[in-house]
Design a protein that fits this description.
Helix content is 21%, strand content 39%. It has one domain: Peptide Deformylase (Alpha-Beta Complex), CATH 3.90.45. Strands 1-2-3-4-5 form a 5-stranded antiparallel sheet. The radius of gyration is 14 Å and the shape is globular. It contains 3 helices and 5 strands. The protein is α+β, with helices and mostly antiparallel strands.
């Protein structure tokens, strides 16, 4: 189901909890909501739809995939950039890494490991940052 985008900074600053298999509907809702906002959004964290769980969805070209409880295990190629967020107005400076490795669970809660570079890596880092409640 397509959900409304949360724009309340006080809510967005709250930490997210690890997801469980009881949160499978949140994954579906996130995928639906990202698809509905594809013209202006390339990634989304669960808190953006009002759920404080560690779930993100990422658009990589024509593909959209979820990452449940993702953890960045390796990063390299530090750089400074500016990003916007569907939940916030304007753009803000931030630090990102060109290459990352991530351990996560897929939509079926099976363990996965991925290596990501460039813009996809940047999207994943942005969305994972939502878990800490730290806004860009």
């Amino acid at each position: 189901m397509v959900k409304d985008i949360v724009r309340d900074p006080m809510f967005l600053k709250q930490k997210s909890e690890p997801a469980t298999e009881d949160d499978k509907q949140v994954v579906v809702d996130l995928l639906d909501t990202l698809k509905a906002n594809r013209d202006r959004c390339v990634g989304m964290a669960a808190n953006m739809i009002g759920v404080k769980k560690q779930i993100i969805v990422v658009a990589m070209g024509p593909f959209i995939f979820p990452m449940i409880n993702p953890v960045i295990t390796k990063k390299s190629g530090k750089f400074e950039t500016e990003e916007g967020c569907l939940s916030l107005d304007g753009v803000r400076p931030c630090t990102r890494y060109k290459e990352i490795e991530v351990d996560y669970l897929d939509q079926n809660f099976k363990p996965k490991h991925g290596k990501y570079t460039d813009f996809t890596a940047q999207i994943i880092q942005h969305e994972i940052q939502h878990f800490s409640g730290e806004l860009i």
